[in-house]
């Protein structure tokens, strides 16, 4: 079964970019535009990896991480944060909330695929 | 995956999103000016800028992203409460926002460099204490030329490591893929069974790695866990290649190879006997293959490498497909193992017996297994249902529109066929059935059309929302004070109409402020409130949408307009004298007329109004102007609400059929011939206390000009359509009114585009062509 990856970001172009990249590498992709929508979708579909932006309206990436970790189905799921280089503080917060790793924006396609392969082989 | 095409797509997707973000920034920043402490607003603005930067950079717009970074800093500070936004900052930010838009559109962003530098400098003034942002996590530096090193790695992850979604076994495997690895699992941390918590990690690993990879690459494996784990890496350059080393290496390889082949054989037996092997077993198999492969590559054992690659691919594909392994796959795996066995044997035979020292190859064991996924959580979170919208390609919509419209016209065939059946074939029963079917289809077609048209309808707000900013900018530039009131922003118009309305509206609103609103001092002196008022109002009226632009400014002076027109040679002095005030106002629509004393760079050079009118005419809209000196002006634009299928009145004149657009027909009357009067070559009629000039359609469209003598005599009863043009209402005499029709107006084609009398032509239900008249163009 191909792995199912959920991409969470309020920027529609970012979601599209990540979606194309991952789909081209053989993954199934589900999109959500904020943490709340992500949680909703995670209850109805099985997700193997979550890639999430940090800064989103309604529910941000840190809160999403916390909530996912609190759900029995997703306690140990790999969660990767999309950060910018000026968000070191957020990165620490993310880790504290249980994030697995991070990708710094802007990123190259190969970087994204490498991290995905690393945390979700 | 074609990288180039992917990049293109990403850029396009980002451009679409950026347009929305920039528009949002416009209105948010303006709002922020009046509510600079609003945390919600500040966050919104910050997020929009943040997204522009992040997604823009990822899409490849590097200059834009770099510039945006500076604006982001300002708003980051603001939303953290470190500084308060002042109008000066808003000004600067709006400037920056414009530049961001330009940077995205420009083919050569370098040209905008100095403009950007200026803004950055100005922004820096507000952020003197901000340290320069460090440049990212730093690129990886390769430690010089690749050198074969022996690394000794100790890795003890944090016991809570599973809670960050990391599987340490993956990391060990990752290391293994970097070269030739001997892994030892340390189990000394394991508690007695009854104290064992399956969600904690009690293990550590020692790895001896022979690899060409630099230490930094090894460290990278632990990138996400290094902060919470115990990691020690000792690296020594492996001794230069010598015979013993070589022998050692080969011996080690043979060892690994032999053991791997054995292990693979064992697994295969398992697979054969028990087809329901779970994926962990398969993954282990894959692991063995991979380590074997790494070792083979490292030793330069090409033959082994090739077979192993094939096997790895085979198994990866099978895993991806899911489900049990097919017999064919199992067969191929068996073949592969046998081949490898043979290769190892032959390699061994060429060598002396393996050295005595045995090395331990310990499979890292997942003592703590991940809990299996329980059933999906039944409780649904239904409170958060966002509205569902889809972005649709315009072309697809157009196709749908066209089809719906053509269906509407095609349905007209049914009544005609029904009539034929009854009259020509005496099949009245059949005829009724056909008519009924036609009626049914008619209803569906109308429903479909309404639905499709509503898809294209958008609130006029999308065009209105740019105006507050524009008015503000003009006011600042001219030191005037004016407020813009918007009414009826929810009024809906076809998307194309809205898009084409944008430019004319911009002209008109600009004019209202630029020419209409006086300087504050002048206003006060005239007894008016200091702040001028410009109102932009939209509402529905029958089948039309009406847009009004009103201002309470100085109004237009008919006398001066006439003067200017005469000066520029646009009308003769005699005509000017004969003109009444109402007609004089219309002069403003003549090209080349501008009563501005100095040409401001904002409003242009008098090319505005005629372009506005012709633009609107193309949308089948009419423009009328009212004004009172000293009080203000009002421009009223009337547009048909929807584009595709137009409703009209079909008329006949001298054997030809024409269609008048319904919004232009005020009234249809029949007059006895006597009611027409002639005066200086023109006919007039008085209808309901209003005098209309009456023109004969036939005269206008005759193939040759007609002299008075040739003029066809009037019938007893004259059918007259009272028609609204840009300026006025006139009566158009025809032979007869035929019917009310719905038509798709198709343009005449480039060669005929200059004929202003017609909007286009249409094909009637029975296949004949009728020309659609543009009243403003032929009167």
The CATH homologous superfamily of chain A is termed: Response regulator
Q: Any idea how many domains of chain B?
A: 6
Identify low-pLDDT runs of chain A.
Answer: none
Secondary-structure class of chain A = alpha/beta
Rounded mean pLDDT of chain A is: 89
Give the oligomeric state of the chains in this entry, treating copies of one chain as homo and distinct chains as hetero. heterodimer
Q: What's the Cα radius of gyration of chain B?
A: 41 Å
How far is the first residue's CA from the last residue's CA of chain B? 61 Å
- Poorly predicted segments of chain B: 131-144, 351-386, 597-606
Global shape of chain B: elongated
Distance between the termini of chain A: 13 Å
Main β-sheet description of chain B: 6 strands, mixed
Q: Main attributes?
A:
heterodimer, A: 121 residues, Rossmann fold, 5 strands, 21% strand, B: alpha+beta, Four Helix Bundle (Hemerythrin (Met), subunit A), Alpha-Beta Plaits, 6 domains, five-stranded mixed β-sheet, 22 strands
Question: Can you describe this structure in just a few lines?
Answer:
The complex is a heterodimer of chains A (121) and B (779). Chain A is an alpha/beta fold.
Topology (SSEs and partners):
The complex is a heterodimer of chains A (121) and B (779).
Chain A: E1 4-8, H1 12-24, E2 28-32, H2 35-44, E3 49-53, H3 61-70, E4 79-84, H4 88-97, E5 101-105, H5 109-119
Parallel strand pairs in A: 1-2, 1-3, 3-4, 4-5
Chain B: H1 3-34, H2 39-59, H3 62-79, H4 87-105, H5 113-126, E1 149-156, H6 168-176, E2 180-186, E3 204-211, H7 215-221, E4 230-237, H8 243-273, H9 279-298, H10 302-321, H11 327-349, H12 394-410, H13 413-425, H14 428-456, E5 457-459, H15 461-464, H16 467-478, E6 482-487, E7 492-494, H17 495-516, H18 520-525, E8 532-541, E9 544-551, H19 558-567, H20 573-578, H21 581-586, H22 608-618, E10 622-628, E11 632-640, E12 645-653, E13 656-661, E14 665-672, E15 676-679, E16 682-687, E17 690-696, H23 697-700, E18 717-724, E19 729-734, E20 736-744, E21 758-763, E22 769-773, H24 775-778
Helix pairs in contact in B: 1-2, 1-4, 2-3, 3-4, 3-5, 4-5, 8-9, 8-11, 9-10, 10-11, 12-14, 13-14, 16-17, 17-22
């Amino acid at each position: 079964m191909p792995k199912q990856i959920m991409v969470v970001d309020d920027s529609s172009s970012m979601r599209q970019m990540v979606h194309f990249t991952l789909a081209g590498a053989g993954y199934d992709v589900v999109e959500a535009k904020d943490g709340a929508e992500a949680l909703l979708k995670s209850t109805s579909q099985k997700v193997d990896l979550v890639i999430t932006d940090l800064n989103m309206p309604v529910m941000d990436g840190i809160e999403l991480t916390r909530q996912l970790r609190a759900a029995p189905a997703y306690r140990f799921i790999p969660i990767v944060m999309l950060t910018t280089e000026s968000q070191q503080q957020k990165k620490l917060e993310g880790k504290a909330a249980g994030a697995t790793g991070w990708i710094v924006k802007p990123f190259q396609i190969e970087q994204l695929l490498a991290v995905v392969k690393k945390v979700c082989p | 995956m074609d990288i180039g095409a992917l990049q293109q797509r990403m850029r396009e997707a980002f451009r679409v999103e950026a347009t929305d973000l920039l528009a949002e920034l416009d209105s948010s920043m303006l709002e922020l000016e009046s509510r600079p402490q609003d945390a919600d607003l500040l966050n919104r603005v910050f997020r929009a800028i943040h997204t522009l930067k992040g997604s823009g950079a990822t899409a490849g717009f590097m200059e834009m992203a770099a510039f945006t970074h500076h604006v982001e800093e300002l708003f980051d500070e603001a939303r953290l409460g470190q500084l308060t936004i002042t109008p000066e900052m808003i000004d600067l930010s709006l400037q920056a926002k414009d530049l961001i838009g330009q940077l995205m559109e420009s083919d050569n962003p370098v040209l905008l460099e100095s403009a950007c530098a200026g803004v950055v400098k100005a922004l820096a003034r507000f952020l003197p204490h901000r340290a320069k942002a460090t440049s990212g996590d730093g690129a990886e530096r390769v430690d010089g030329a690749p050198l074969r090193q022996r690394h000794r790695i100790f890795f003890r992850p944090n016991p809570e490591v599973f809670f960050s979604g990391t599987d340490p076994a993956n990391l060990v495997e990752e290391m293994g893929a970097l070269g030739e690895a001997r892994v030892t699992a340390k189990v000394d941390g394991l508690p007695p069974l009854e104290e064992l918590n399956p969600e904690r990690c009690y293990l550590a690993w020692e790895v001896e790695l022979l690899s060409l990879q630099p230490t930094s690459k090894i460290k990278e494996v632990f990138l996400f866990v290094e902060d919470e784990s115990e990691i020690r890496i000792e690296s020594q350059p492996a001794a230069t290649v010598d015979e013993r080393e070589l022998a050692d290496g080969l011996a080690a390889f043979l060892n690994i190879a032999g053991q791997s082949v054995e292990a693979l054989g064992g697994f295969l037996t398992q697979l054969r006997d028990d087809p329901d092997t779970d994926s962990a077993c398969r993954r282990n198999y894959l692991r063995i293959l991979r380590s074997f492969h790494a070792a083979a590559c490292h030793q330069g054992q090409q033959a082994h490498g090739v077979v192993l690659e094939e096997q790895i691919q085979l198994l990866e594909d099978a895993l991806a497909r899911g489900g049990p392994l097919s017999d064919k796959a199992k067969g191929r795996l068996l073949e592969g193992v046998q081949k490898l066995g043979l290769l190892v044997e032959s390699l061994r035979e060429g060598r002396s017996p393996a050295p005595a020292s045995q090395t331990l190859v310990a499979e890292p064991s997942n003592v703590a297994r991940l809990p299996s996924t329980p059933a999906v959580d039944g409780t649904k979170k239904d409170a958060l249902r966002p509205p569902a919208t889809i972005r649709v390609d315009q072309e697809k919509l157009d196709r749908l529109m066209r089809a719906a419209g053509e269906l509407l016209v095609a349905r007209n065939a049914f009544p005609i066929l029904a009539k034929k059946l009854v009259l020509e074939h005496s099949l009245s029963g059949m005829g009724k059935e056909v008519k009924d079917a036609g009626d049914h289809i008619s209803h569906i077609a109308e429903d479909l059309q309404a639905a499709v048209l509503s898809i294209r309808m958008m609130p006029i707000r999308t065009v209105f929302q740019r105006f507050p900013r524009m008015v503000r900018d003009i006011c600042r530039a001219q030191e005037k004070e004016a407020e813009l009131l918007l009414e009826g922003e929810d009024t809906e118009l076809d998307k194309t109409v809205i898009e084409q309305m944008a430019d004319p509206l911009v002209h008109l609103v600009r004019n209202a402020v630029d020419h209409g609103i006086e300087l504050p001092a002048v206003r006060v002196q005239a007894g008016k409130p200091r702040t001028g008022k410009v109102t932009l109002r939209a509402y529905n009226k029958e089948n039309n949408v009406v847009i009004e632009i009103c201002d309470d400014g100085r109004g237009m002076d008919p006398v001066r307009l006439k003067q200017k027109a005469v000066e520029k040679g646009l009308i003769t002095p005699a005509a000017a004298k004969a003109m009444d005030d109402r007609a004089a106002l219309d002069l403003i629509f003549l090209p080349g007329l501008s009563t501005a004393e100095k040409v401001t760079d904002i409003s242009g050079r008098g090319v505005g109004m005629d372009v506005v009118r012709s633009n609107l005419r193309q949308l089948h809209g009419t423009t009328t102007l009212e004004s009172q000196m000293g009080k203000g002006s009002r421009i009223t634009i009337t547009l048909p609400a929807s584009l595709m299928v137009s409703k009209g009145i079909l008329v006949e004149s001298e054997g030809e059929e024409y269609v008048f657009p319904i919004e232009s027909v005020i009234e249809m009357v029949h007059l006895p011939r006597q009611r027409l009067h002639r005066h200086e070559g023109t006919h007039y009629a008085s209808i309901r206390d209003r005098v209309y000039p009456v023109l004969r359609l036939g005269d206008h469209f005759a193939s040759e000009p007609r002299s008075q003598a040739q003029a066809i005599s009037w019938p007893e009863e004259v059918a007259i359509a009272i028609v609204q043009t840009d300026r006025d209402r006139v009566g158009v005499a025809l032979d007869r009114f035929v019917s009310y029709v719905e038509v798709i107006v198709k343009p005449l084609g480039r060669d005929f585009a200059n004929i202003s009398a017609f909007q286009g032509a249409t094909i009637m239900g029975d296949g004949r062509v009728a020309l659609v008249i543009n009243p403003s163009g032929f009167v």
